[in-house]
Amino acid sequence: MEQTVYGDILFFVNFCMDFQCLFLTAKLLRRPFRLWRSVIFAAVGALYACVALFLAVSGIWAFLADCAVCFLMCAGAFWRKEEAFWRLLVPFALYFGVSFAVGGVISGMGSLLAHIEAPIGLDDGEISSVGFFLLAAVGGIATFLWGRFCQRRAKGRRVTLTVEWAGKRLVVEGLVDTGNLLRDPVGGKSVVLLKKERAKDFLPARLLAATERGHESAVAELPAELARRIRWVPASTAVGRGLLLAVSPDQAFLDVGKGNVAVELLLAPVILSEDLGECEALLPAELIVE
User: Fold this and answer.
1) Chain segment 211-232, per-residue pLDDT in tens
2) With 90 as the cut, is the pLDDT of residue 82 above it?
3) DSSP for 87-137?
4) Of 4, 175, 237, 281, which residue is 20 to 30 A from 163 by alpha carbon distance?
């Protein structure tokens, strides 16, 4: 029995699902979501789905090829050069699980709509390519709205932030600020605004002095082991645009009431308003996952 497959629709459906799965994996692991890297490697996965139709491979070899492409997608979307390559096994395993869940939901919805004879592109009682196209689009919109809902829900929430640097540990109470959209344009890490007074007890004096000066010459004078920790982050304020100097800690953990969870972030020592009370850090909402 022959079946007509439209390559453009197949590509779009797989791209949407791959992109959603990469997004959900990043959020569940509290890893930075690098948009363009995710777009590129979601497209790689979608292209493979189209090419696989013409490959005379089945059984265990087809499964291994699928795993290899999935691992490549996770490596492209999540790997950082300072990270051991084997640590990609965690996002790879989670991505596989998320893919099964998302694919199951899409297939289940398709079967349900076919059963009730919903007019969304059904063909002989089964969901058609157009139907899957619509379901994938709806899934993408739902994922976006879910992310926005979580950010709004987290607004004004207080959390405990723990950061480590060269054997030192700093624990502060932070406030989730949905207006904090600062992000490292290269690595994709979110930026936490840390009260400067607390940073003095935690960061090396020379590094803190460089962040206060906020000039390239200050960074050039630092030893290589400190200079490599600095990131320049574009920032917009009431007086104009500029560059904010942020630093990368050894480790960071967030506790939203369910225990510490490792996160990836940058710290920017700044002068915070006294209106914040006991809060000593402003965190972006995207670090919070319900």
Assistant:
1) 777 677 777 778 888 888 888 8
2) no
3) GGHHHHHHHHHHHHHHHHHHHHHHHHHHHTT-SSSEETTEE-HHHHHHHHH
4) 237
